[in-house]
Amino acid sequence: MGERLTAEACNSRNGIATRYYKCSTIKRRKGKCESKSIRKEKLEDFVATKIKSALLKGDTLNKIAEYLCIAYNSTVTDDNM
Q: What's the Cα-to-Cα distance from 58 to each of 2, 48, 62, rounded to whole Å?
């Protein structure tokens, strides 16, 4: 466990493309990997859900909004107003 995942795609006999992630060790044929391949949609939905829950926890969104306002305001000059 701990190896990076790499994107892969293949076409089935009927021409339907399947996208998935698999262990980069297997792709490079450099050894065995305990992780199984996982469908692209399943992994990306999982990651998106984890990111959303982290952003919605506590005042994270407020902190991000404050930072963005400060960053934006620092780029605006009196000439642009």
A: 29, 18, 9
The residue among 33, 13, 14 whose CA lies nearest residue 24 is 33
Distance, CA of 31 to CA of 48 (rounded, Å):
30
Confirm if 41 and 21 have CB atoms less than 8 A apart: no
Residue of 8, 3, 2 whose CA lies nearest to 39: 8
pLDDT of residue 79: 47
- Which pair of tokens denotes residue 65? 């909004």
Angstrom distance (rounded) from CA 34 to CA 45? 22
> Where exactly are the structural domains of the chain?
5-76
Residues of the chain with pLDDT under 50: 78-79
